[in-house]
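Sequence in, structure out.
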Amino acid sequence: MNPVTKGYLRLTRPANLPTSAADILAGTAISGVFMHATLGESSSVNNIEHILILIMSSVLLYAAGVVLNDVFDYKIDKTERPERPIPSGLVPLRSAAIFGGVLMALGAGIAFLVNPLSGLTATALGLVILLYDSLAKHHGFFGPLTMGTCRGINLLLGISILGSFNYWWCVSIPIVYIAAITLISRGEVYGNNKKHILFAATLYASVILGVLLLFVTADLNVLQALPFLVLFAILVYRPLMKAYKINSPENIKNAVVAGVLSIIVLDATLVVGFSYWWVGLPTLLLLPLSKFLSKLFAVT
């Protein structure tokens, strides 16, 4: 592959993109699409098309966010991550900014093909992404909160597929979860973040208990979703415990990577809870895809 082309790909962090698609699948499940779909109905065909459009919108917006994040971090990366495409000179700063802007415009624009609510939700997501990249990420409290809000709105983008926001308060799940990952990442370069890890462990627990409470109180498919939730807990807590015991940058990075990729398992859990186990499997299969891509491209 051409080095410049690979440089642009690296900016989009391909390994993370399936996690964005998983958010959309979870959101569409929450909307009730899978419970009411009947094979062969024209409405079902339309729903499939709309799901694919929203996935593309989400992936483009996510890619735009990480590209523009590197644009805003150019000066910091010259010192801390000089090997990244922009500070290394592989991708010019101006070209990266244009690239990110085009991705964001496309991501927000195509969501209007589904319905006006989806388009407005995608536009709002783009604006919050810009807020995080430019300002919020430097704040100790609002940084994690804004990053989590991006994921929450992404879930809401999936929920909007039918033109309404059913179970809109489910956005609190990814907001809390991503805030936890963002806290862990605070020690990725220099280590020494045990307090953040303990707080993140508490946030992880609140997410797991919150999902269980949601499934039980709303009389959802808790029994079929439970194995998915247990898998999620194992995947996030094992590297987190290791990072706490040996608080090195490498272990912290591994905990962050595990947290990011395990979003897929959390989303699959939500899909199963709001539909059936076999509907959640395609979402879960995005995990090996992410893991494969993570061997080729950086996650953080």
